[in-house]
């Protein structure tokens, strides 16, 4: 049996080889015309592979054979190779082949590759004589308009198509789609059913029918409809995508996997097939494999929106907010109506702590999807971060009463997907999948959190009780319950809930973290440490546990070396954990261990050469190690990988300034501004360079650009005022500062305006401004602090002491106010200075500045032993602050320890900028030794 089977396979193989050889041998002597005839025969037999060979043979002999170009374009189109189809059809048209045949297919190819606007721009001038060709072209124009959100224009296009050719099926499908966008889903479905009576195999009609059935929450029927699409168009990757989406929604992951395999067989390694595999990997919790897979897709198709969207989702999970923002910018340029991308963009800006940009990105969502519970929650977070708590509460209230399981909500999601007019329609389905999954609890969690944000603990507990009935054996349930009990100040109940979560799942890290927080509240830090130690001992490969333990240690004031030791241990246990490695690099950069930071960053870079966050960290490590040229090289390579981000170029400019290559820095900044014209960070740096080159007019031009870009913001006017001030035009600087103050009535803005008026000689106006501000804002300390510091600069110590005492009445436990008052009292010779400084130290025992002040006062009082002790402690906590080492060196000289003083001065000089005032003082003291 085995022998006969092998023989049979050999026969099949040999037959196929013989057929191929016959084709190739025939090509040697046949004419292009005979090859075209042969290709047509193969097409009639549905053998596209053989037809393709013959068409390419014909074109090899005669590259200008227009009909061969057209037929090859048609074959490419039928096989789903729309880019290849576009290329061949365009050449056929250029060679003079019939526009009636080429233009309709070329228009559809452009549509399929997301290039709808090119249809009218490049093909409208073509003379079409056949009614069906004209109808097809007008229909494609209609779909292009839909893709741009121009529904009325699309409807006119479809109507014109039907005038050109009565009953043209694709135009009728377009009209049904417009009807669906108008939210008449049942009517649209009836229209599609009527179309299918006349054209029962029309894939486009089956596709819209499947979309409508999905929106109407009839998934079983939708699956059958998508199968009908695939039967008519075996290479229709979008139909596969939607079908697989529905299977995943039904939690039929194994069936979905088989469909992915069928999709690969039908379309080859199409980017969408690779993407869907990555999505299934995410569904199965294989996030690392998914991220690797989606990066593979993006290497093949860097502009492929589905992969970019999944990549941004995973990047948000990895807290790589900058890269997510870059991806999402590209997505929204291609698909401005894609709701999920806009939601993720808002989340990315929140992660980047850019609340103003988050609020700007939120507005289209509020307009187009303002009833979506996810949007409402995002809006609440955005307005909270912007400090607008009234609006924040409003959005959280609306979110809390929304029902995420409501059929209308599901319908709205479906309609949003249809209205977007994008080829990657299934993403809206994928977005809704968790909400539609009976086993999903995200909606419950969202509701609980919304109530908690409004301090509605009773309602939150009611939602928890509903979740407890739904998921009585899920640790997340009891983690949420513990959170609500915490908010209700029932700490004992919260502990019991978190313990229950751990009982259900001993390796449930969120419950461990919450119990540790309770331990902190109860001042049981040792107990919290033991929790993490015990958890890590049982779960040594949990990278997130090391990171959370490190965060706990840093938050509770553990020495940096202890936090470093923990992260080192974590890296040893989980050597491939990029988050641990990156956290360790950041800590080492902060602590000044540049050599070790650079080594780890280089290792991370070798592991993840395409990860832009890793490459950025490598650049920062190189800067910390003083390897400026290497850092410049790193950012030079990073910039092309982030073509829509000004950040690498701004980093390059900083390095070029540091190496005194100001011309190159200016070029880098101008490139950054070209990418994103309102990049204030780049504009501010460019202004500084222009001022340094005495090009003040150009600098003011940049400030004026900012004013136009950010009409309601103060920054452009602040910069103009600062430029004029730097030019010595103190009076001319006043109007811009006045404009800035109109737009930003903040304490910082009033300080700037006060300073400008004082510099312009308007002392009375400045004094009135300050008095009016203090009267209107009696609890503000910013302006008061500035006035006190100004008094210090002018050596008006009595006035400064009075001002600090007034501020301490408002903030009696502010250590920095106490510190400054102590320093002033020391200058006044007031014996209470040391006592005040000791109060500051009690409130901020690890502040190097506060310890430095106390040390100096003790030295002045004659208690040199204690004074030196405090100054040494200050230096140990702030080793990179030259002023602290200078004060310690002075103290050491005073007690006769000149060698110790020289050592401190040398260390200080390595950190003090050349030609700075502190460097001059260090040089002077060292020379005296």
General description of the model:
With 929 residues, this protein is mainly alpha-helical. Among the domains are: 3-30; 31-166, Serine Threonine Protein Phosphatase 5, Tetratricopeptide repeat (Alpha Horseshoe), CATH 1.25.40.10; 234-302, Alpha Horseshoe (Serine Threonine Protein Phosphatase 5, Tetratricopeptide repeat), CATH 1.25.40; 576-637, Alpha Horseshoe (Serine Threonine Protein Phosphatase 5, Tetratricopeptide repeat). It has 54 helices and no strands. Helix 28 (475-487) packs antiparallel against helix 29 (491-504). The radius of gyration is 35 Å and the shape is elongated. Mean pLDDT is 81; it is low at 1-29 and 403-438.
Quick recap of the structure?
The chain is mostly helical and 929 residues long.
Q: pLDDT average, as an integer? A: 81
Q: Stretches where pLDDT falls below 50 for ≥5 residues?
A: 1-29, 403-438
CATH superfamily of the domain at 31-166: Tetratricopeptide repeat domain
Shape: elongated
Q: Describe the sheet with the most strands.
A: none
- The first-to-last residue Cα distance is 100 Å
Structural class: mainly alpha
Total of DSSP H or I helical runs spanning 4+ residues? 54
Q: Estimate what percentage of residues fall within beta strands.
A: under 5%
The CATH topology of the domain at 31-166: Serine Threonine Protein Phosphatase 5, Tetratricopeptide repeat
């Amino acid at each position: 049996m085995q022998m006969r089977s092998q023989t049979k396979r050999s026969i099949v193989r040999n037959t196929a080889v013989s057929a191929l050889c016959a084709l190739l041998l025939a090509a040697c002597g046949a004419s292009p015309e005979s090859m075209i005839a042969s290709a047509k025969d193969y097409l009639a037999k549905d053998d596209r592979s053989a037809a393709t060979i013959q068409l390419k043979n014909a074109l090899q002999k005669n590259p200008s054979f227009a009909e061969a170009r057209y037929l090859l374009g048609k074959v490419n189109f039928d096989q789903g190779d729309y880019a290849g189809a576009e290329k061949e059809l365009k050449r056929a048209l250029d060679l003079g082949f019939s526009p009636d045949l080429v233009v309709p297919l070329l228009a559809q190819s452009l549509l399929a590759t997301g290039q709808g606007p090119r249809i009218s721009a490049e093909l409208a001038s073509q003379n079409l004589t056949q009614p069906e060709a004209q109808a097809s072209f007008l229909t494609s124009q209609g779909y292009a308009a839909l893709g741009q959100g121009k529904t009325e224009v699309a409807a006119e296009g479809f109507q014109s198509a039907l005038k050109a050719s009565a009953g043209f099926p694709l135009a009728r499908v377009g009209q049904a789609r417009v009807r669906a966008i108008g939210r008449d889903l049942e009517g649209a479905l009836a229209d599609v059913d009527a179309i299918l009576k006349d054209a029962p195999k029309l894939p486009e009609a089956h596709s819209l029918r499947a979309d409508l059935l999905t929106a109407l929450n009839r998934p079983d029927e939708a699956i059958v409809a998508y199968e009908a699409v695939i039967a008519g168009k075996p290479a229709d990757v979008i139909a596969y995508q939607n079908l697989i989406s529905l299977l995943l929604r039904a939690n039929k992951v194994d069936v979905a996997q088989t469909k992915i395999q069928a999709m690969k067989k039908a379309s080859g390694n199409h980017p969408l097939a690779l993407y869907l595999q990555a999505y299934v990997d995410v569904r199965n919790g294989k996030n690392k494999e998914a991220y690797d897979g989606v990066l593979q897709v993006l290497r093949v198709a860097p502009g492929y929106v589905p992969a970019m969207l999944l990549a941004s989702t995973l990047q948000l999970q990895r807290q790589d907010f900058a890269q997510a923002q870059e991806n999402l910018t590209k997505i929204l340029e291609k698909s401005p109506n894609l709701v999920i991308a806009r939601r993720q963009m808002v989340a990315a800006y929140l992660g980047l702590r850019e609340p103003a940009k988050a609020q700007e990105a939120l507005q289209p969502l509020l307009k187009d999807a303002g009833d979506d519970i996810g949007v409402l929650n995002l809006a609440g977070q955005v307005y909270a971060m912007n400090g607008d708590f009234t609006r924040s509460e409003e959005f959280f209230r609306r979110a809390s009463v929304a029902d995420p399981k409501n059929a209308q909500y599901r319908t709205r999601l479906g309609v949003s997907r249809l209205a977007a007019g994008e080829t990657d329609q299934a993403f809206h389905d994928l977005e809704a999948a968790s909400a539609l999954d009976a086993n999903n609890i995200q909606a419950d969690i969202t509701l609980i959190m919304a109530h908690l944000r409004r301090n509605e603990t009773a309602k939150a507990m009611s939602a928890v009780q509903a979740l407890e009935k739904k998921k009585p054996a899920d640790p997340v349930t009891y983690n949420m319950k513990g959170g609500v009990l915490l908010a209700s100040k029932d700490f004992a109940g919260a502990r019991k809930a978190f313990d229950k979560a751990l009982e259900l799942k001993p390796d449930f890290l969120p419950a461990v973290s919450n119990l540790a927080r309770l331990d902190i509240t109860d001042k049981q830090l040792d107990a919290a440490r033991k929790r993490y130690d015990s958890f890590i001992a049982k779960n040594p490969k949990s990278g997130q546990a090391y990171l959370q333990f490190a965060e706990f240690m840093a938050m509770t004031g553990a020495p940096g070396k202890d936090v470093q030791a923990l992260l080192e241990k974590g890296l040893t246990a989980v050597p491939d954990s990029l988050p641990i490695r990156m956290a360790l690099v950041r800590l080492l950069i902060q602590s000044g261990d540049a050599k070790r930071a650079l080594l780890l960053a280089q290792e991370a870079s070798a592991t993840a050469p395409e990860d832009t966050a890793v490459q950025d960290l490598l650049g920062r490590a190189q800067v910390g190690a003083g390897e400026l040229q290497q850092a410049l090289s790193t950012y030079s390579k990073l910039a092309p990988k982030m073509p829509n981000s000004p950040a690498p170029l701004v980093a390059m400019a900083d390095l070029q300034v540091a190496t005194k290559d100001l011309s190159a820095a200016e070029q880098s900044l101008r490139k950054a501004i070209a990418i994103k014209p309102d990049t204030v960070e780049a504009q501010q740096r460019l202004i500084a360079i222009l001022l340094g080159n005495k090009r003040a007019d150009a600098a003011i031009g940049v400030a004026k650009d900012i004013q136009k870009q950010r009409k309601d913001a103060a920054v452009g006017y602040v910069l103009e005022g600062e430029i004029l001030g730097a030019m010595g035009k103190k009076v001319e600087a006043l109007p811009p500062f006045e404009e800035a103050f109109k737009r930003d009535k903040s304490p910082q803005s009033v300080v700037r305006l006060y300073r400008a008026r004082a510099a312009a000689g308007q002392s009375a106006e400045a004094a009135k401004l300050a008095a009016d501000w203090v009267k209107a804002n009696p609890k503000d300390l910013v302006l008061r602090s500035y006035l006190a510091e100004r008094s210090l600069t002018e050596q008006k110590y009595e006035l400064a002491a009075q001002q600090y005492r007034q501020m301490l009445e408002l903030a009696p436990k502010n250590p920095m106010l106490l510190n400054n008052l102590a320093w002033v009292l020391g200058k006044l010779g007031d014996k209470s200075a040391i006592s005040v400084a000791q109060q500051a130290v009690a409130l901020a025992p690890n502040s190097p500045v506060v310890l430095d002040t106390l040390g100096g006062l003790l030295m002045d009082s004659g208690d040199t032993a204690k004074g030196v002790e405090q100054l040494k402690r200050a230096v140990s906590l702030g080793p990179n602050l030259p002023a602290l080492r200078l004060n310690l060196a002075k103290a050491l000289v005073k007690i006769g320890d000149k060698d110790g003083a020289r050592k401190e001065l040398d260390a200080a000089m390595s950190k003090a900028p050349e030609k700075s005032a502190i460097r001059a003082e260090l040089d002077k003291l060292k020379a005296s030794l």
